[in-house]
Amino acid sequence: MTTMTVAPALADTAAGTTTGTAARQVEVRTGAGWFSVCGLARLTPGRGVAALLPDGTQAAVFLDRGGRAYAIGNRDPFTGAYVLSRGLLGSAGGAPFVASPLLKQRFDLATGRCLDDEEISVPVFSCRTS
C-alpha cells in the first residue's frame, strides 16, 4: 500500500467531533462483522484506496474532504476492471460520487447507483472510523 499524507485532524464521522487520526481505523462491514481496512491517517481526502476484504471482494474506500469515509465495490461494471478506487471524487446535487477513471461513469458513494445509467449500480459497504 502506498503511504499517503493527510491533515493531522479530521472530523469524526459518527460523533461530528474533530480528533487526531494517529490510532483511528477505517472499518468496512462484511458478512462476518467489521473489518479494519487501514489507519485513517493513510487516506487522503478526495482520493481512494483499494482494499481486499476477507471474502476476496475488493472495496474502493474513500475519505471525502469533510472527513466522512465511504466504501463501494471496486469493480467498474462497464469495463469489468477493478479501478473505481482510482476514480475522481465529486458531488452532484450535494451527493458525493466517484467517476470511473476509464469511461467516466459516476457512482453515488452512498447508494452505489450509477448517475449516468440508472439500471447499473455497484455494491455499497457500511463504513466507519473507530
User: Mean pLDDT, rounded to whole units?
Assistant: 86
The ordered H/E elements are EEEEEEEEEEEE
What's the number of extended β-strand segments? 12
Low confidence ranges: 1-18
Structural class: mainly beta
- How many distinct helices? 0
The helix content is under 10%
Query: How are the strands of the biggest sheet laid out side by side?
Result: 5-6-7-11
- Major sheet size, sense and barrel closure: 4 strands, antiparallel
Q: What is the beta-strand fraction?
A: 35-45%
**Assembly form of the protein:** single chain
* Overall radius of gyration: 14 Å
Description:
There is one protein chain. A hairpin with a 5-residue loop joins strand 5 and strand 6. The strands form four sheets. A four-stranded antiparallel beta sheet has the order 5-6-7-11, with no helix packed on it. 0% of the residues lie in helices and 41% in strands. It has no helices and twelve strands. It is mostly beta strands and 130 residues long.
Task: Summarize the helices and strands and which ones pair or pack.
Blueprint: E1 9-11, E2 18-20, E3 25-30, E4 33-39, E5 48-52, E6 58-63, E7 69-73, E8 88-92, E9 95-99, E10 106-108, E11 124-125, E12 127-129
Antiparallel strand pairs: 1-2, 3-4, 3-12, 5-6, 6-7, 7-11, 8-9, 9-10
